[in-house]
């Protein structure tokens, strides 16, 4: 469920406001994320989606509002604390190091003493391509490989919530399908998902519910099936039809 309360709520955001100077970037956002029900947030460029993610992670100060994670008030917690509590973040653009290898990226995060479910070997099991590219520098990876590495790095922190900002941006269609399948598996494995997507097909495939963000506000929560079958709604809020899968014309980069 996107709104209301549930004993299984893992993330509860109430009336969140974020400003850049005197401009609103997020306005009165309220989100209740159930651990078992992935939620996608869609919207055109510049509507405040990345700002929302950064505020949830504590990377931006909030003007007002509260954030709770599994009943703990995290509104004033540091980004590090939020990560330690179990919120994983895959930021837009992946933010990898050009001069570190795949393996070094993962070893930087992995804690061999932690008893978490995720180890480097398990990351390589789900992404065999990354294993093949373990000695390659961040700079040398394709878009899809970078995305896998960014997801792998987030998983090594053993999150129980994963926030992903445009996970399929710039990926070739075959890689997009792989990312969708992975997200569905992670959800089935018990990881809560909050997915920011410009690719409406992906948003609808991964989550049963979708929040539509317009000018910083989440103006509507809908079952994915409703948005999928309502071209007027897609046109009104996103400026597209579902067959045109992106809310913004973009050229998928080949691998
Ligand atoms: N550091 C910043 N300083 C000032 N304004 C900003 C800053 N970052 C973003 N904005 C503005 O805040 C608004 C929301 O931006 P944001 O990046 O959150 O939107 P978005 O929906 O994620 O867009 P995109 O899909 O292009 O990533 C936009 O008007 C943007 O220009």
UniProtKB/TrEMBL annotation:
Pfam families: ABC_tran. Residues 11-240 form the ABC transporter domain. PROSITE patterns: ABC_TRANSPORTER_1, ABC_TRANSPORTER_2. One of its GO terms (biological process) is L-amino acid transport. GO terms for molecular function: ATP binding; ATP hydrolysis activity; branched-chain amino acid transmembrane transporter activity. Keywords: Amino-acid transport, ATP-binding, Nucleotide-binding, Transport. Belongs to the ABC transporter superfamily. This is ABC transporter domain-containing protein. It comes from Puniceispirillum marinum (strain IMCC1322).
């Amino acid at each position: 469920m996107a709104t209301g309360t549930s004993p299984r709520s893992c993330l509860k955001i109430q009336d969140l406001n974020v400003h850049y100077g005197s401009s609103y970037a997020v306005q009165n956002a309220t989100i209740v994320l159930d651990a078992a029900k992935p939620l996608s947030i869609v919207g055109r460029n510049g509507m405040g989606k990345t700002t929302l993610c950064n505020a949830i992670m504590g990377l931006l100060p909030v003007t007002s509002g509260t954030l709770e994670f599994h009943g703990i008030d995290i509104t004033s917690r540091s980004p590090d604390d939020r990560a330690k509590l179990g919120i994983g973040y895959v930021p837009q653009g992946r933010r990898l190091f050009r001069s570190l290898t795949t393996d070094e990226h993962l070893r930087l995060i992995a804690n061999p003493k932690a008893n978490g479910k995720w180890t480097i070997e398990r990351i390589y099991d789900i992404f065999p391509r990354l294993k093949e590219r373990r000695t390659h520098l961040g700079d040398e990876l394709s878009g899809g490989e970078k995305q896998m590495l960014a997801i792998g790095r987030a998983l090594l922190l053993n999150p129980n919530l994963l926030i992903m900002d445009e996970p399929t941006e710039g990926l070739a269609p075959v890689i997009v399908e792989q990312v969708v399948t992975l997200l569905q598996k992670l959800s089935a494995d018990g990881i809560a998902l909050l997915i920011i997507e410009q690719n409406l097909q992906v948003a609808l495939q991964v989550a049963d519910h979708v929040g539509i963000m317009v000018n910083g506000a989440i103006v509507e929560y809908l079952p994915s099936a409703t948005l999928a079958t309502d071209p007027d709604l897609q046109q009104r809020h996103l400026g597209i039809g579902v067959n045109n899968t992106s809310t913004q014309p973009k050229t998928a980069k080949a691998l």
